[in-house]
Write a structure and sequence with these properties.
The protein is α/β, with parallel strands linked by helices. The chain has a single domain, classed as Alpha-Beta Barrel (TIM Barrel). It contains 10 helices and 8 strands. An 8-stranded parallel barrel has the order 1-2-3-4-5-6-7-8. The longest helix is centred in the N-terminal third of the chain and has 20 residues. It is globular and about 50 Å long. The chain starts with a strand and ends with a helix.
Length: about 290
């Protein structure tokens, strides 16, 4: 397993600044603790080629964080409307091509918005599975895995595919070859699920893990919900010690044998360099 850091959530300006992103990737390499960088980048074909080159030079594995543009652009692979679903699959295919161009080994995606009506889980599962089958074919031969990240459906960002039961419905009888799951600890805690039980149930398809924190006790807290603060956050759901304990317990139980990348995900609020240093310190405390 390789340890990684979600880099552009800490340095969002690097999403559109190729030179900055190159410099940050080199700095991450020099950290000598991480073997993987997770990023999202909006640039020209030439700039994507530059990013591929720097990744090859540093030897870092790369994951393309497709969840950001998918949420922002309301890409909806779980849509009821077939036209919307097909357009959304095409949008995901473009991101898959961008990810492959930069040499990423994985692309993280999410579903579309929650349908917000009871009794529609079967339909959501059917539409999502159909889209994933089409994307699975697209990824064939690209040496790239599509990793579906469940998100909260009742709180922001309110996506359709989130709770463990629904995710299991989509995957349990699937025949995917290039599709797996990203398990984000924060998302399952936001859904008030037992993260250990959820992990055990979905373990056959989990190849990628995000260790992330959240604040859920106070809805008036500016960090409430899907904000991914540091593990040192006073009122966070996890501490460095508890998330480290969760990781080591899964490792001891043999539940991480199919996970090839485990990354720390923290979102900065200005003071990017401070958040970067904090993330590096917390990573060493969790995995060191």
């Amino acid at each position: 397993m390789k340890f990684g850091l979600c880099l552009t959530p800490i340095y969002p300006q690097a999403i559109q600044d190729c030179t900055l992103l190159e410099r940050l990737i080199e700095r991450l390499r020099d950290q000598k603790f991480f073997q993987c960088v997770e990023l999202y980048f909006e640039g020209t074909q030439e700039e994507r080629n530059r990013i591929r080159g720097i990744l090859e030079n540093t030897g870092l594995e790369a994951v393309y964080l497709g969840g950001l543009p998918i949420k922002r652009d309301v890409v909806d692979i779980s849509a009821r409307d077939e036209r919307v679903r097909k357009e959304s699959v095409d949008a995901c295919k473009r991101h898959i091509e961008y990810a492959a161009c930069m040499g990423c080994g994985k692309i993280v995606i999410g579903s579309g918005p929650d349908w917000k009506r009871p009794g529609c889980e079967e339909q959501i599962a059917e539409q999502t599975r159909k889209s994933l089958e089409e994307l699975d074919c697209c990824a064939e031969g690209m040496k790239l895995e599509i990793s579906v990240e469940p998100f909260p459906s009742k709180t922001e960002p309110c996506l359709a595919v989130g709770n463990t039961h629904l995710v299991w419905k989509i995957f349990h009888d699937s025949q995917f070859h290039n599709v797996g799951l990203t398990f984000d600890t924060s998302h399952f805690r936001q859904m008030q699920e037992d993260i250990e039980k959820s992990f055990h149930l979905l373990q056959p398809w989990i190849h990628h893990v995000h260790l992330a924190n959240c604040v859920m006790k106070d809805k008036n807290n500016p960090l409430y919900g899907d904000k991914h603060p540091c593990f040192s956050q006073e009122d966070g759901e996890f501490t460095v010690e508890s998330i480290g304990s969760f990781y080591r317990k899964l490792e001891k139980q043999g539940m991480l044998t199919q996970v090839d990348i485990c990354s720390l995900e923290i979102i900065s609020r200005k003071k990017e360099d401070w958040y970067y240093r904090e993330a590096c310190q917390e990573a060493e405390m969790i995995w060191g």
